[in-house]
């Protein structure tokens, strides 16, 4: 028999790079735009162009690749579009830091030169994450690689902006925004990270204009009082109702401000029931200011320094230095009533960590409600499914309370807003192309808007702009809408909601049917990973150490929909699984000849129960894996194939097949069928595993010389009714239980593997007894028996047990042990007897049973049961021993 060969030593480095290169060169990732074939399409959540692969990227791209490979093997014309995001703020920050190392500031070189520097940086570093994703084995169609600032995507952005503007859904206005003084730009609500911080609460007294009384207000930001334009009270608060309409002197200024009634802003049960109102520097105050017609005084500028409106004593000071000066001045005037420690939530810019300054600013906004309503309905009606569905209440709550979207950013890197200002008449011209003159007054003195669009604006168009929209390209007509989106729950509103809104608005169709929201990867203790904590796992490091397949399988089997606690040793465990696969394949290849062991020549009537059993178990596993993948239960699919391959195939079937494969039985017919089944199970198992572990499965499968040139285009296994065999499964399961029972008995009694037992089985059912007689060699071999007897009397003194209605009698040879060992057993017995007595006494104590928590009582009962079982085994061991 000619033998196939695998190297003895398993090392992923020997083949991962070679196989990936062959896949790309073979064009396996690149589908044709064929509308006649069933198709599956998906887009990658575009990573930052300057980013490096982190463990979150590894998770999301592994899960997507599992879906894509599964669908491709299942016969779908499968497209996975890759790409990167220009990441406006993040990329600009990186390039500015690089320029600073050379002593250059962006304002020194000007916008055009700065943009050139960013493009240069992108060309030098932009492909780094692509190469890193390739190391992970992702099967994206790299020929369709897109970038959010590609001309095609930029054209789509301009088209959408202009249409929204013409439809009255984009407007420019002075409004409240989140401002980052470090980046000097507005940012959206969902780019603000809130941190619980121990701060202070300053209680400040505001004198009435006539000096008769003082009102006390509390604030965590004393410097903003310089921009107060009112104090507010609740209209029904008896303490202050008579003061509504009166005025107070604003400390540290020469201004008087009114006392207004506002039932929305003021909670009369909180504090003094008096609230300062700073419409230019607080969102709630801004809305109160609009309701009450209050002026807006901006006392903090875009760099975080105090403006002239703050007064000569504070102008130009940093906002936190101004806070100290304001507090000191109030204390000096006797207007600082008291200061309290106060824990409160402070917003930080998630990109740079700077404390956000709420302020009024003239910005571009999207009127969001007309876009949000159809998106809400799409999820409510089931056109789009959120998986897991537990995210739906969060979705509805957020979308029903959504604010208009500030889309302008004061940056130089990004999609520049397609708007021009006429200096002659003040007209705003919004156009996809550069206008030559003002359509209102014909002036040619037009000035281009300097702001760029929020990065998420272009990302919102990603599912269709990447396919050439607004042109009706073949890709767009064939692959849009996409079928699924896989992404982290943390960008449900950053990105997912915006794609749904834009897709429905501009294509008339939901951009995807299903959204799978996976958890975030955290360290083994559930903490967020960060370089400062030293708990980051670099996916490239663990790929180098354990292989891409082990990393991928670890991430998949842990992806249960919630956040993932991850430790490096988990990958080590699944590296051992890869080694197990390799060694099982080596064993199989030593005993098969692909020219002879054609699976089509398997004759079911000639198969022994053990072959019928493994094919039936493989069939059940195939059904479970396909079901789990259809439901995005990557963990369940991975667990099913792991349990089958390691335990049922390797631990049981291969061991059960060895007597025949090693020609101990002399049955040539059984040998031929066993070889064919072994090859068939290995082949199907590899194909089941391929989406999870593409490299090792391809390397082994190619050695098997299959019909297809790559496993990735071989058919994915599906369950077949003909392979189901409940009778064989019941028989082998019973034999496994008997073997396990005897093995456990051997271990518990301390017998060596060389010690063999005579076993008697009492089997009432004649058919079952006949099956055990025909397949008794399995028990003899795997349970290491000297003799197996069916339906004879069980001798006196034999150890008795029961499995599935079968009584087992095991004749144990007496085992000679030393007096010291007997003494040790007796001491163990005495110790356990004392612990049982103590536990039993607690359980008989009515006070303990009635007052202790239920789980404590149940734990005590379980402990007593465990101790009694251990005691019985120790007594049996002692009784079976002789000196």
Distance between the termini: 53 Å
Reading side by side through the largest sheet, how are the strands ordered?
6-5-14-16
* Basic shape: globular
Helical region count? 28
- Helicity, as a percent range: 40-55%
* Radius of gyration from CA coordinates: 36 Å
Structural class: alpha/beta
Note the beta-strand portion. 15-25%
Main sheet attributes: strand count, strand direction, barrel closure: 4 strands, antiparallel
User: Mean pLDDT across all residues, rounded?
Assistant: 91
Low-pLDDT runs of 5+ residues are none
* Total number of strands: 31
What's the layout of helices and strands?
Layout: H1 16-25, E1 39-43, H2 55-73, E2 77-81, E3 83-84, H3 88-101, H4 106-109, H5 111-125, H6 128-136, E4 146-147, H7 151-166, E5 170-180, E6 185-187, E7 192-207, E8 214-219, E9 230-233, E10 247-249, E11 256-261, E12 274-277, H8 283-292, H9 319-333, E13 336-349, E14 357-366, H10 369-380, E15 385-387, H11 392-400, E16 405-406, E17 408-409, E18 419-422, E19 428-430, E20 446-448, E21 452-453, H12 455-459, H13 462-465, H14 474-479, E22 484-488, H15 492-507, E23 514-518, E24 521-523, H16 539-546, H17 548-558, E25 564-566, H18 568-590, H19 609-630, H20 634-661, H21 668-689, H22 694-703, H23 726-749, E26 757-762, H24 766-774, H25 776-782, E27 785-790, E28 799-803, E29 806-811, E30 815-816, H26 819-844, H27 846-851, H28 854-879, E31 881-882
Parallel strand pairs: 1-2, 3-4, 9-11, 15-23, 22-23, 24-25, 26-27, 30-31
Antiparallel strand pairs: 5-6, 5-14, 7-8, 7-13, 9-12, 10-11, 14-16, 17-21, 18-19, 18-20, 26-29, 28-29
Helix pairs in contact: 10-11, 10-15, 16-17, 17-18, 17-20, 18-20, 19-20, 19-21, 19-23, 20-21, 21-22, 26-28
């Amino acid at each position: 028999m000619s033998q196939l060969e695998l190297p003895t030593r398993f090392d992923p480095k020997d083949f991962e790079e070679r196989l990936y290169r062959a896949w790309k060169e073979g064009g396996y990732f690149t589908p044709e735009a064929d509308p006649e074939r069933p198709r599956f399409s998906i887009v990658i959540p575009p990573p930052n162009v300057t980013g490096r692969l982190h463990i979150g990227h590894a998770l999301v791209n592994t899960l997507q690749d599992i879906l894509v490979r599964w669908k491709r093997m299942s016969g779908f014309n499968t497209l996975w579009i890759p790409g990167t995001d220009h990441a406006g703020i993040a990329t600009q920050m990186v390039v500015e830091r690089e320029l600073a190392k050379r002593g250059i500031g962006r304002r020194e070189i000007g916008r055009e030169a700065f943009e050139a520097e960013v493009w240069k940086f992108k060309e030098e570093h932009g492909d780094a994450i692509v190469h890193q994703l390739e190391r992970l084995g992702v099967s994206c169609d790299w020929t369709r690689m897109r970038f959010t600032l590609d001309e095609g995507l930029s054209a789509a952005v301009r088209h959408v902006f202009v249409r929204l503007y013409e439809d009255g859904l984009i407007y420019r206005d002075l409004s409240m925004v989140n401002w980052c003084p470090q980046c000097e730009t507005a940012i959206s609500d969902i780019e603000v990270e809130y941190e619980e911080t121990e701060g202070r609460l300053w209680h400040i007294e505001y004198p009435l204009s006539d000096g008769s009384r003082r009102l006390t207000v509390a604030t965590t930001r004393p410097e903003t009082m310089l921009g107060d334009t009112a104090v507010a009270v609740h209209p029904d608060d008896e303490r202050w109702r008579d003061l509504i309409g009166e005025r107070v002197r604003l400390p540290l200024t020469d201004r008087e401000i009114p006392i207004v009634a506002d039932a929305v802003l003021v909670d009369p049960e909180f504090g003094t029931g008096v609230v300062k109102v700073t419409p230019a520097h607080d969102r709630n105050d801004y809305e109160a200011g609009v309701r009450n017609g209050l002026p807006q005084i901006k006392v903090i500028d875009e760099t975080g320094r105090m403006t002239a409106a703050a007064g000569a004593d504070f102008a130009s000071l940093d906002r936190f230095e101004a806070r100290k000066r304001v507090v000191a001045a109030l204390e000096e005037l006797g207007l600082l009533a008291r200061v309290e420690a106060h824990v409160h939530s402070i917003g930080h810019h998630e990109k740079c960590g700077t404390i956000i300054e709420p302020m009024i600013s003239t910005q571009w906004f999207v009127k969001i409600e007309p876009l949000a309503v159809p998106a809400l309905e799409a999820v409510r009606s089931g056109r789009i499914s959120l998986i897991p569905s537990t995210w739906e209440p969060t979705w509805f709550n957020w979308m029903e309370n959504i604010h208009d979207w500030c889309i302008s950013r004061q940056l130089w890197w990004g999609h520049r807003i397609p708007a021009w200002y006429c200096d002659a008449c003040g007209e705003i011209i919004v156009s996809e192309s550069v206008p030559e003159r003002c359509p209102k007054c014909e002036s040619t003195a037009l000035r281009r808007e300097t702001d760029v669009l929020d990065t998420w604006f272009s990302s919102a168009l990603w599912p269709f702009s990447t396919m050439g929209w607004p042109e009706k390209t073949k890709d767009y007509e064939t692959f849009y809408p996409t079928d699924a989106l896989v992404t982290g729950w943390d960008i449900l509103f950053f990105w997912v909601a915006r794609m749904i809104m834009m897709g429905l608005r501009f294509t008339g169709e939901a951009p995807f049917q299903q959204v799978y929201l996976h958890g975030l990867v955290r360290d083994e203790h559930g903490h967020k990973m960060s370089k400062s904590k030293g708990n980051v796992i670099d996916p490239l490091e663990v790929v180098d150490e354990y292989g891409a397949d082990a990393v991928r399988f670890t991430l998949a089997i842990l992806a249960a929909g919630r956040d993932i606690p991850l430790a490096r040793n988990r990958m080590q465990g699944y590296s051992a699984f890869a080694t197990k696969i390799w060694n099982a394949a080596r064993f199989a290849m030593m005993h098969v000849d692909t020219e002879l062991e054609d699976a089509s020549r398997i004759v079911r009537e000639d198969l022994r129960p053990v072959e019928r059993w493994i094919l039936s178990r493989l069939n059940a596993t195939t059904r479970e894996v396909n079901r789990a993948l259809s439901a995005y239960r990557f963990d369940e699919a991975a667990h099913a194939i792991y349990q089958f391959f390691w335990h049922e195939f390797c631990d049981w079937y291969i061991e059960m097949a060895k007597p025949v494969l090693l020609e101990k039985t002399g049955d040539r017919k059984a040998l031929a069928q066993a070889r064919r089944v072994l090859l068939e199970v290995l082949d199907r198992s590899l194909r089941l595993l391929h989406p999870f572990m593409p490299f090792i499965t391809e390397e082994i499968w190619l050695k098997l010389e299959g019909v297809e040139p790559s496993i990735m285009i071989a058919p994915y296994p599906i369950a077949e009714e003909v392979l189901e065999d409940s009778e064989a499964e019941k028989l082998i399961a019973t034999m496994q239980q008997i073997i396990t029972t005897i093995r456990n008995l051997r271990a518990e009694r301390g017998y060596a593997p060389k010690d063999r037992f005579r076993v008697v089985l009492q089997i009432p059912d004649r058919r079952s007894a006949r099956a055990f007689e025909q397949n008794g060699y399995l028990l003899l071999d795997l349970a290491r028996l000297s003799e197996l007897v069916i339906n004879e009397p069980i001798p006196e003194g034999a150890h008795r047990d029961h499995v599935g209605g079968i009584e087992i009698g095991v004749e144990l040879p007496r085992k000679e042990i030393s007096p010291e060992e007997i003494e040790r057993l007796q001491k163990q017995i005495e110790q356990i007897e004392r612990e049982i007595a103590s536990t039993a006494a607690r359980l008989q104590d009515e006070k303990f049973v009635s007052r202790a928590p239920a789980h404590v009582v149940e734990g005590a009962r379980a402990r007593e049961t465990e101790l009694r079982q251990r005691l019985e085994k120790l007594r049996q061991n002692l009784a079976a021993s002789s000196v």
